[in-house]
Every structure is written in C-alpha cells, then in structure tokens.
Amino acid sequence: MAIFLLLCGAFLVGEYYNGKSKIIIQRQLTGSNNIEKAWNFYIAEGFSKEATAGILGNYMRESKMDPTIEEKGNNIGFGLAQWSFSRRTDLEKWTKENDFLPSSLEGQLNFSLIEMEKMKFGKYKYNDFKRVNNVKEATILFEKYYERAGVVALEERIKNAEEIYKKYS
How does pLDDT run across 63-98, given as a tens digit for each residue? Predict the structure, then answer.
C-alpha cells in the first residue's frame, strides 16, 4: 500500500510498507545522468562524499553505471554492482517484492543499502563506512568487502572515484 507525500524541494516521493519489517523510502532520483542520480541518492542516505565516490568508482568499473548491463560472455553478473549467483537472485527477488524492476537504477540503489546494512567493511560497520572521509580508503573498502571482484583493477576504481569526487563534491 502506498502513501504518497509531497515535500517541496525534497527527494522524498513516497513510502510503503514492504510486508515484512521495513519501510522502504522511494525517492525521485534527481540528476542529469546515472552517476549524478546515484551520487544524490547516497548523499541523501547520509553517506559522506568520499564514501559515495568510493561506491560509484567501483560501480563505474563494474557496469559504467548501467543498471541493465549483463556480464559479457556468461551473463552471470547483472546491474550496477554486477551482482552474481545468489546475490543476483536476491536482487531480483527483493526488487520484485518491493515494486521495482530488477533493472531499475532506483531498485538497485535501494537494494545496495539493504545489502550494506548487513555487512562489515573491515573494521567499519555500515554506519561507520558511511562516514569514511578518504576517497581511496572508501574505494578499497567497498571493493574488498562489497564488490569482491574477480578482476580487482583497483587503480581504475580509485581513479574513477577520484574523478567522481572532483566533479560532484
């Protein structure tokens, strides 16, 4: 059941109960491209600019910020984070249960929060990771504990993150 709210100047469009234990906030994503939309989303969720850049630098390496992309060759990885195997199944299930398309930017961004809330980033818990204030550190932590990439390409991820930070911070 949806309850729609109109708040001038805010990202909040509405919220609904997902039938379990959590209220999912639906935001109207704002920005001229997927990077800017994701930047604004994570900042609105309380992530530091540095942590946000680290996340997006990783997504750029994985998918070029295309939520519809499938991994070349085997089609196992999918979306922004190239979710694979059980994580892809979890993404598809969660987005459908919460009225998002699995290929939607908004659905994938919201799902990433659900996953991150359950994780530790080395010495950091989720809320501590959100406050990381170093782009390189955030990029490395996100790759190591969230992405766990087959091809790490850390220099590329860091470069992407630094460029995003310079452009949007």
Answer: 999 999 999 888 799 999 999 999 999 999 999 999
Tens of pLDDT, residue by residue over 16-28, are 334 444 555 556 8
Lookup result for tokens 């309380």: 46
What lies within 8 Å, CB to CB, of 93 at 6+ separation is: none
pTM for this predicted structure:
0.85
CA end-to-end distance (rounded Å), the chain: 36
Shortest CA distance to 164 belongs to which of 43, 35, 65? 35
The total number of residues shown for the chain amounts to: 169
- Residue 160 domain boundaries: 2-168
Q: How many domains does the chain have?
A: 1
Contact 140, 146 (CB under 8 A): no
- Mean pLDDT for the chain overall: 88
Cα–Cα distance for residue pair 111/12, rounded to 1 Å:
17
121: number of Cβ within 10 Å: 22
| Helix, strand, coil percentages, rounded to 5, for the chain | 50, 10, 40
Count CB atoms within 10 A of the CB of residue 57: 27
Indicate which CATH number applies to the domain containing 51: 1.10.530.10
* Rg of the chain on CA atoms, in Å: 15
> Comparing C-alpha atoms, which of 69, 80, 11, 6 is closest to residue 41?
11
